[in-house]
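TL;DR need structure tokens for one chain.
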Amino acid sequence: MANSPITAQNTVQQWLDHPTGGPALRGMLAQAGSDESTLGPALTLKLQQLVDLSQGQFPQAAVDELVKAANGGVMPETEATVLPTVAGRFEGRTIIVTGAGSGIGRATAARISREGGRVIAVDIAETKIQELAGELGESIVPVAADLTDLSAVERIIAAAGSSIDGLANVAGINDDFSPLHEVSDAMWQKIFAVNVDGLVRLTRAVLPTMLEAGKGSIVNITSEAGLRGSASGVAYTASKHAVVGITRSTAFMYAREGIRVNAVAPGGVATGIPMGGKTSEYGEARLAPARVNIPGLASAEDLAASITFLLSDDGVNINGAILPSDGGWSAV
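>> reply
TL;DR here they are.
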């Protein structure tokens, strides 16, 4: 690789190992008052992914200049790497995807659309789902909805119409990493309102249509926090454990009616979505050492591949499963 062009599609680690890319990247980090020791799991990311992950601190222009500098002032030609899709896999099917405005939800909605499906794209951010519809066309039906609003479910079901083949409950929010002795009632209620209550209401609403059809696939998003106690604060952790229980109970209850219910448990994901607000110092101090076990960060598209596999007929014999899509973190 020493004599080959290095591009934004190479990983951060490949950049650091490159004879010209390494010094260029280290120089940029130094200008920002940082160094490679702060990158952690981001070493496995493609350089391009840092644009979204940095939330504006590492803009596209900076990436382009870095690539030029590492290649003698010349921008090498590259092909964008996109995960392969399965043509027609969702042809004739209507799938509801929550959290479709950004991150994993957006990547999932886009992949279903590219594979022939009609997507009811739900998000609280109307502008973002309208942009998605503008990019992908009539296969995207945007529904601006706050899942904590009791009337939102009715509008989502109305937009879907008489046929609902699948539901991806992707929408979710994280907490402030607070442990039990610090967590406020407001934080607890906020997390459960979105991660659990909203999921339950929407799933409950789609089930009659699926039961009448005798088929359907539901995929919930839990988290590594639903598998362990060292991934987040108590509110988020409890909410994602609840999602695991809801998934298994629902899978058992409706297995004979042709409805499959599974969950995907992401590890670290480079979505660039800020958590917002101040985090607990107590929680951060205890969680930080555990993060060294994260093998790497996945892209939103990586998670969309796992979700659409379970949503589709490719997962025909999978029901009640909790699929860790975490690069091996759960194996630690």
